[in-house]
Amino acid sequence: MADDIAEKLKETGQRVQDTEKGVKLLQQEEKAINGSADKAVEDSEEIFTELIRLLKKISSHVKQQIRSQQETEVSRVRELQERLEQEITELKRKDQELKQLSDTEDHNQFYTTTPHCHHSASGSVFSGTLRT
């Protein structure tokens, strides 16, 4: 019986040692899992920080291109508007000259006093051409 108790104590002691080794292995595994997770979180933060930086850079570039195109188009529209306003002014002036001509009884005097008008063989009254 003493041998049985001694055998049981030996078995129990061995089981305690094996279990303690298992606990130590699990603690090491937990530490490795935590370290790996911490590294993965750190890496993903670096990746997302870089992605955000690149997206901001791209966004800034796109905004700059849009504004540049806006300036080009606005300039084009303003130049066209200015040309059209000049054309309107010229057309109004020519219209006024035509009205004066129609109201003038002495057309020859009108031709000589109005600098933009001349009388040619073709019957053209104005030196410029009307644009439509």
Structure description:
With 132 residues, this protein is an all-alpha fold. The chain has a domain at 2-74. 83% of the residues lie in helices and 0% in strands. The chain contains two helices and no strands.
Concise account of the structure shown:
The protein contains 2 helices and no strands. By secondary structure, the chain is mostly helical.
* Structural Rg: 48 Å
Backbone shape = rod-shaped
Encode the helix/strand succession as letters: HH
Residues in helix, % = over 70%
Q: Report on the biggest sheet.
A: none
β content, as a range? Answer: under 5%
Count of β-strands: 0
- Structural class, from helix and strand content? mainly alpha
**pLDDT < 50 stretches:** 119-132
Mean pLDDT: 87
How far apart, in Å, are the first and last alpha carbons? 126 Å
- Tally the helices: what do you get? 2
